[in-house]
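Why does residue order matter? Because the sequence determines the fold. Keep that principle in mind as you read this record.
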Amino acid sequence: MKTVKSETGRIKVALYLRLSVDSDDSSSIETQRAACLRWLDQNDYDLDRVDITEYPDAGVSGAKPLELRKGMSALMRDRPDVVVAWKQDRYARSVTEFLRLVSWAETHKAILATTDNQLNTATANGRMAATILAALYEWERDMIKARISAGHATRRTQGRWASGAAPYGYRIVRRDGGAYLEIDDDQAENIRTAVRKLLADGTATSTAPIVGLGHIRWRRLLKSPVLRGMRNYQGSLVVGDDGVTPVQFAEPILSAAEHKAVRERLAALSNGDARAPRNASPMCHGMAYCYKGCKLNGGASGKGVRLYKCQQGHVTIYAETLDQAVTDAFLTRWGGFAEYVVRLEGGNDLSAEMIEAQEQAERLGQRMATAGPLMMATLESLSADLEASYAALRAAHDPNVREVLEPTGRTIGEAWGDPGARSRLLADVGLMVTLHPKQRGERLDIRWESGGDDQELVEMLGEMA
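Structure:
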């Protein structure tokens, strides 16, 4: 082989070693290195007059541009006299990238060779053969990608898990020669607990620690169809061969109604319509004023004792003192009334299931618009089944809730123990507290401005339970 020597008289040889996935199989980095060294010996390179440098690219695709590979970009900067690789596909699996490498070699008078002797750019025939081989390698890579994509698509339509880790809440099981998802009971229970807290008064950020996920990943999971046992692919819901019916990959963790409520809660939070309550707000916040009409806000003394403080500094009072006085007055006025609970009758809300049916009908309509005569009969039968299912949902759908008051056997005074409900109850009866200076004997004026009669108030207070 004719070799161009560097100005120093020594031959600069580069061993290019690339592996898409680092492993110990027959194409490992170690195997390629040994083959390149044998090739140099078989082609009469005097190792005393050769400077050998390795340029490894482990875990790098052959389709990746030359300049974006750490080893290859360093090789091109160093401009060796001879570049040896195990096989031509080690250089590139793209015709475009390989021809760019050949052009670089011609510009810098470098020789590209492979240990199987199928490539030698020192000759015109060698360059032509290299171009043909590169085209074959690219075709082979595209065929492999097409087979993999087709296999994934088939597994998706069959409800099998195509690839990757299982989503949170599920685990991968093997059966019938394939991979499937089934519910992970512990993770699913974490999800249901977090969802209950989210729907009560939580946020995605506050409930994420329950499932052990970051709040961004948790929010994405809540919005996706995964918790309904379905999944999206490239932004669209995965459906069966009919192009309409969603593929069920696993049993759902959340019902349709629960998932609908979660999406509505997240939407409300993002719009600022459902913020979590402030835990630090005092019991009478927004209902207590100073004698000059200023609001009393929560605060603390220098020793950390909780206070109600006038915005303008006119008066202050210990929070415990004011809250206790209000509690005593409330219980004196209303505490003897019987407590009622509200029992709900009816209220079979199937709106979420109806929405899913409507979405399926929309996909069916799109499919029928492009279907041929042979497929039309099948689609019409599917349409009839869908219409029947939707009619049954509408017949059972009864979102109106009827409230029936039932006595609990306790009084309102006995039910006052829920601190979280007290501010709401006081606001419902129109509490107005006025704080006067210390010089006045009775500093607090407590009034109730509810416009309803006692029975209406009792029914309203019954909601506390």
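Residues 1-6, 451-465 have pLDDT under 50 and may be disordered.
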